[in-house]
Automatic annotation (TrEMBL), chain A:
Protein name, entry field: UBC core domain-containing protein
PANTHER family tied to this protein: UBIQUITIN-CONJUGATING ENZYME E2
Domain UBC core: from-to ranges: 5-137
Superkingdom to which the source organism belongs: Eukaryota
Matching CDD domains: UBCc_UBE2N (cd23813)
Pfam families, sorted: UQ_con
UniProtKB/TrEMBL annotation, chain B:
The organism's place on the tree of life at top rank: Eukaryota
Pfam family, one: Ariadne
Catalytic activity: [E2 ubiquitin-conjugating enzyme]-S-ubiquitinyl-L-cysteine + [acceptor protein]-L-lysine = [E2 ubiquitin-conjugating enzyme]-L-cysteine + [acceptor protein]-N(6)-ubiquitinyl-L-lysine
Compositional bias segments (type: Acidic residues): 1-49
Keyword match Metal-binding: yes
Keywords, comma-separated and alphabetical: Metal-binding, Repeat, Transferase, Ubl conjugation pathway, Zinc, Zinc-finger
Domain named RING-type: residues: 135-348, 139-183
Taxonomic source organism: Senna tora
Sample GO molecular function, one term: zinc ion binding
Entry protein name: RBR-type E3 ubiquitin transferase
Function as written in the Swiss-Prot or TrEMBL entry: Might act as an E3 ubiquitin-protein ligase, or as part of E3 complex, which accepts ubiquitin from specific E2 ubiquitin-conjugating enzymes and then transfers it to substrates.
A single BP term in Gene Ontology: protein ubiquitination
Amino acid sequence: MANSNLPRRIIKETQRLLSEPAPGISASPSEDNMRYFNVMILGPTQSPYEGGVFKLELFLPEEYPMAAPKLGRICLDILKDKWSPALQIRTVLLSIQALLSAPNPDDPLSENIAKHWKSNEAEAVETAKEWTRLYASGA
Amino acid sequence: MDSEDDMHDANDIESLDDDFYSGETEDAPLDYYSDYDDEADDYFEDADESDKIKSRRPEQNFTILRESDIEQRQEDDITRVSTVLYISRVDASILLRHYNWNVSQVHEAWFADEERVRKTVGLLDKPVVEFPNARELTCGICFENYPCSRIESAACGHPYCISCWEGYIGTSINDGPGCLMLRCPDPSCGAAVGQNMISLLASDEDKKKYSRYLLRSYIEDNKKTKWCPAPGCEYAVTFDAGNGNYDVSCLCSYCFCWNCTEEAHRPVDCGTVAKWILKNSAESENMNWILANSKPCPKCKRPIEKNQGCMHMTCTPPCKFEFCWLCLGAWSDHGERTGGFYACNRYEAAKQEGVYDESERRREMAKNSLERYTHYYERWASNQSSRQKALADLHQMQTVHIEKLSDTQCQPESQLKFITEAWLQIVECRRVLKWTYAYGYYLPEHEHAKKQFFEYLQGEAESGLERLHQCAEKELQQYLSADGPSKEFNDFRTKLAGLTSVTRNYFENLVRALENGLSDVDSNGAASSKATSSKNGAGSSKGRGGRGKGTSRINKMTDDSSWSCEHCTYANGASVNTCQMCRQQRR
Ligand SMILES: [Zn+2]
Ligand SMILES: [Zn+2]
Ligand SMILES: [Zn+2]
Ligand SMILES: [Zn+2]
Ligand SMILES: [Zn+2]
Ligand SMILES: [Zn+2]
Ligand SMILES: [Zn+2]
């Protein structure tokens, strides 16, 4: 299986993401593919996304960490030409969270998130509840 | 009023005819096409002596560089910077690369603020982190522990294991020339990774690629150098600002414009050439353009492939221009006002306003304008292919015929240079003539007189060139197929050499006239004339369009009233009785 020869680095990153999660961020690997993560980022307080949850799928390509993680249609410089193998999943998710707390209308990422949020409000609220439940039950 | 003007137009063209082409003084037969010392000339009055001489015998303001020349120059520059700033050659190379290989800019910036330069370029003079007593270190990429012998760092000291460095450097080199600007993997660090690290940690193949990029950078980033744009040519050109003549001829025989790197295009300016080329591709490749999944970067023109979902394109380093795939506008211009990032408004707006949905009237107009375009395009293109053919013929002359001709006509090859020269002239004239069609296409319709004058000059050029081309192509044939020397061969030489020189002069003058924007023809449709002391009285009735005092530099090469020399067949103007070519008397 793809998980059998997972690089040490990915294993270490995953362990750390689970044992010391960054506040407001959850990233858990899929059971059948450890390179595939389900990510949820809580809308930061006092931001337009407060109380909401932003759901993402993150995939670590074969070349990771020499190549950046794949994050769907998200348009973020550190996922493109600014990527460095010294960055980590955690750094990437923190960058997204930072953008959520200070949305810049001229930023394509915020634009994308806003659209996503508007179109999936019901789903997002559901997710938020699930999130709260998971978080509260101390995973 | 209108009709009166029209009459003037007609009249003026006639007077131009008389005044500008046939007027010739008999005492200076060889001045027919050029001279610096005749009394004056209205038509080219703006050109001063030195300009004329320059454009006649262009001073070479460029140098062609072979690969070894490039390497030598690059080494020399690195040595200079390294010596003057007292830094390593690796650091000197990084600095130069950063300042686009401009040695004086490097020196200036360094002596103005060394610390700032070091910071922006990433030349650290001491490490940021140090592990003096460590026996093992953790690699910042794979998180494994290694003995210090398996760890390498840039000047900053950030530790990465050798295999992670290899991956990091290999990825970067295979991403393209951005590897020349490689920095320490630590995103907060910025220490430059120079060629010493590359030599230590890259594969042989990657080292070669890196050196190649470094060499290319020396040419491509340097404002004074460019590659010869001819396909397959590996020479570069260095250009010193000069007299405004941008024509460069490479050792590979390709001639191009230094300024826009299109094929040499005098007398048309770079802007017109760009418009024309765009027009040509728009007409023929509209569909391809829309379907393409690669588009030229709007800034550096390199093709950028679209391989991601979003419309936000970032050109590959060193350009890194960020643009919108849909409208090719700068990404920084995009925001909510363009209607959201994935539905770029500038693109949608065009569709909604029905730009692509023409009304009947517009269709008709489009049809007419297409016909007009086709007219010019066909002529442009046919001169182009005629030029290609002439190039092939020239090659054939040089490689086969000259030698053979030298045998049959018992002439040393040095005496046959006139044939090669004729062909070189044909190639050059085809090029000029080709571009006069782009010139004509963009000449404003309402400037009737200019237009007519232009078409007249162009027609003359065309027929003159045809005559030369025919002489070099067809008349030469009989000597090529002859078994032994023919006594007419010397006459043929006189004729072909004469036609070559006449045509060269005519075209040189034509180029200058067009480059001046035919400035002598004013908007009323007459050739303006400061000097109106028309001697021959053939000027227009209102004193406009007078020929002034003397000779025009553009002269008719053929004329209704011309006479054909019995000796050499050269078509002489009506006003001379001595053949301009061979000086035989008219009979
Ligand atoms: Zn490592
Ligand atoms: Zn560093
Ligand atoms: Zn060349
Ligand atoms: Zn040009
Ligand atoms: Zn570019
Ligand atoms: Zn756009
Ligand atoms: Zn003659």
